[in-house]
Amino acid sequence: RAEGDIVDEAGNRLGTHEGAYGYTIGQRKGLRIGTPAPDGKPRYVLDISPVNNTVTVGPAEALDVDALRAIKPRWCGAAPTGPGTYTAQLRAHGGETEVRAELVDGTLEVTFTEPVRGVAPGQAIVLYDGTRVVGSATIASTTRATAGAA
Q1: Checking DSSP bridges between strand 54-58 and strand 64-75, what pairing results, if any?
Q2: Does pTM surpass 0.85?
Protein backbone atom coordinates (compact mmCIF):
# COMPACT_ATOMS: atom_id res chain seq x y z
CA ARG A 1 0.00 0.00 0.00
CA ALA A 2 1.54 3.25 -1.15
CA GLU A 3 -0.31 6.52 -0.85
CA GLY A 4 -0.55 8.51 -4.07
CA ASP A 5 -2.39 11.35 -5.71
CA ILE A 6 -5.81 11.51 -7.32
CA VAL A 7 -5.60 14.09 -10.11
CA ASP A 8 -7.85 15.56 -12.77
CA GLU A 9 -7.05 15.48 -16.49
CA ALA A 10 -5.01 18.68 -16.17
CA GLY A 11 -2.90 17.11 -13.41
CA ASN A 12 -4.42 19.13 -10.56
CA ARG A 13 -4.27 17.25 -7.25
CA LEU A 14 -7.79 16.55 -5.96
CA GLY A 15 -7.04 14.09 -3.18
CA THR A 16 -5.06 11.02 -2.20
CA HIS A 17 -5.53 7.27 -2.39
CA GLU A 18 -4.09 4.41 -0.36
CA GLY A 19 -2.99 2.37 -3.37
CA ALA A 20 -3.71 2.68 -7.09
CA TYR A 21 -4.34 -1.09 -7.26
CA GLY A 22 -7.68 -0.52 -5.51
CA TYR A 23 -9.23 1.38 -8.43
CA THR A 24 -10.82 0.35 -11.72
CA ILE A 25 -11.27 2.28 -14.97
CA GLY A 26 -14.82 3.64 -14.93
CA GLN A 27 -15.16 3.50 -11.13
CA ARG A 28 -17.31 6.27 -9.68
CA LYS A 29 -17.88 5.33 -6.04
CA GLY A 30 -15.34 5.57 -3.25
CA LEU A 31 -13.02 8.12 -4.84
CA ARG A 32 -12.78 10.20 -1.64
CA ILE A 33 -12.42 13.52 -3.43
CA GLY A 34 -13.30 16.39 -1.15
CA THR A 35 -14.52 18.90 -3.73
CA PRO A 36 -17.14 18.44 -6.44
CA ALA A 37 -16.31 18.87 -10.12
CA PRO A 38 -16.78 22.45 -11.40
CA ASP A 39 -19.81 21.32 -13.43
CA GLY A 40 -21.25 19.41 -10.45
CA LYS A 41 -21.26 16.10 -12.37
CA PRO A 42 -19.76 12.89 -10.99
CA ARG A 43 -16.14 12.01 -11.69
CA TYR A 44 -14.93 8.63 -12.86
CA VAL A 45 -11.56 6.89 -12.88
CA LEU A 46 -10.08 7.51 -16.34
CA ASP A 47 -6.56 6.18 -15.88
CA ILE A 48 -4.44 4.37 -13.33
CA SER A 49 -0.68 4.86 -13.46
CA PRO A 50 1.17 2.37 -11.25
CA VAL A 51 4.49 3.91 -12.34
CA ASN A 52 3.53 7.37 -11.03
CA ASN A 53 1.13 5.94 -8.42
CA THR A 54 -1.61 8.30 -9.62
CA VAL A 55 -5.29 7.86 -10.33
CA THR A 56 -6.73 10.26 -12.92
CA VAL A 57 -10.41 11.17 -12.74
CA GLY A 58 -12.74 13.09 -15.02
CA PRO A 59 -16.19 13.23 -16.61
CA ALA A 60 -18.03 10.17 -17.92
CA GLU A 61 -17.57 11.30 -21.54
CA ALA A 62 -13.80 10.97 -21.13
CA LEU A 63 -14.28 7.19 -20.75
CA ASP A 64 -15.34 6.90 -24.40
CA VAL A 65 -12.82 4.89 -26.42
CA ASP A 66 -12.71 4.77 -30.21
CA ALA A 67 -9.69 2.50 -30.73
CA LEU A 68 -7.48 0.03 -28.92
CA ARG A 69 -4.34 -2.03 -29.28
CA ALA A 70 -4.44 -5.62 -28.04
CA ILE A 71 -1.60 -8.08 -27.49
CA LYS A 72 -1.24 -11.86 -27.48
CA PRO A 73 -3.93 -12.48 -30.10
CA ARG A 74 -5.19 -16.06 -30.33
CA TRP A 75 -7.06 -17.26 -33.40
CA CYS A 76 -9.60 -20.01 -33.93
CA GLY A 77 -8.01 -21.06 -37.20
CA ALA A 78 -5.72 -19.03 -39.43
CA ALA A 79 -4.91 -15.45 -38.44
CA PRO A 80 -6.52 -12.85 -40.70
CA THR A 81 -4.27 -11.61 -43.50
CA GLY A 82 -5.72 -8.11 -43.77
CA PRO A 83 -8.18 -5.71 -42.18
CA GLY A 84 -11.69 -6.97 -41.54
CA THR A 85 -15.01 -6.01 -40.01
CA TYR A 86 -16.10 -8.04 -37.00
CA THR A 87 -18.44 -7.96 -34.04
CA ALA A 88 -16.57 -7.54 -30.76
CA GLN A 89 -17.44 -8.28 -27.16
CA LEU A 90 -15.48 -6.64 -24.34
CA ARG A 91 -17.17 -7.86 -21.16
CA ALA A 92 -18.59 -11.23 -20.25
CA HIS A 93 -22.11 -9.83 -20.14
CA GLY A 94 -21.48 -6.78 -22.31
CA GLY A 95 -23.16 -6.07 -25.59
CA GLU A 96 -21.55 -6.56 -28.95
CA THR A 97 -20.21 -3.73 -31.07
CA GLU A 98 -18.99 -3.49 -34.65
CA VAL A 99 -15.24 -3.01 -35.13
CA ARG A 100 -12.63 -2.89 -37.82
CA ALA A 101 -9.60 -4.95 -36.84
CA GLU A 102 -6.21 -5.63 -38.34
CA LEU A 103 -3.18 -7.61 -37.24
CA VAL A 104 -0.11 -5.34 -37.39
CA ASP A 105 3.26 -6.84 -36.44
CA GLY A 106 1.59 -9.37 -34.13
CA THR A 107 -0.57 -6.74 -32.42
CA LEU A 108 -4.32 -6.42 -32.94
CA GLU A 109 -5.30 -2.85 -33.91
CA VAL A 110 -9.04 -2.27 -33.40
CA THR A 111 -11.21 0.73 -34.32
CA PHE A 112 -14.81 0.97 -33.08
CA THR A 113 -17.55 2.21 -35.40
CA GLU A 114 -19.11 3.96 -32.36
CA PRO A 115 -17.22 4.96 -29.18
CA VAL A 116 -17.39 2.42 -26.35
CA ARG A 117 -17.30 3.44 -22.68
CA GLY A 118 -15.02 2.13 -19.95
CA VAL A 119 -12.61 -0.10 -21.85
CA ALA A 120 -9.47 -0.82 -19.84
CA PRO A 121 -6.06 -2.38 -20.40
CA GLY A 122 -6.04 -5.97 -19.19
CA GLN A 123 -9.56 -6.71 -20.40
CA ALA A 124 -10.13 -9.23 -23.16
CA ILE A 125 -11.60 -8.49 -26.56
CA VAL A 126 -13.30 -11.32 -28.44
CA LEU A 127 -13.95 -11.03 -32.18
CA TYR A 128 -16.88 -12.74 -33.90
CA ASP A 129 -17.84 -13.37 -37.50
CA GLY A 130 -21.58 -13.81 -37.05
CA THR A 131 -21.91 -16.28 -34.17
CA ARG A 132 -18.48 -17.84 -34.76
CA VAL A 133 -15.57 -16.81 -32.53
CA VAL A 134 -12.68 -15.71 -34.73
CA GLY A 135 -10.16 -14.83 -32.04
CA SER A 136 -9.35 -12.91 -28.90
CA ALA A 137 -6.60 -10.76 -27.41
CA THR A 138 -5.69 -8.83 -24.27
CA ILE A 139 -6.20 -5.06 -24.41
CA ALA A 140 -2.87 -3.25 -23.92
CA SER A 141 -3.89 0.37 -24.53
CA THR A 142 -6.83 2.49 -25.60
CA THR A 143 -7.33 5.74 -27.47
CA ARG A 144 -9.97 8.01 -26.06
CA ALA A 145 -12.60 9.46 -28.37
CA THR A 146 -12.03 12.86 -26.75
CA ALA A 147 -8.35 12.68 -27.82
CA GLY A 148 -5.37 11.42 -25.89
CA ALA A 149 -4.61 7.88 -24.81
CA ALA A 150 -5.46 6.02 -21.64
Answers
A1: unpaired
A2: no
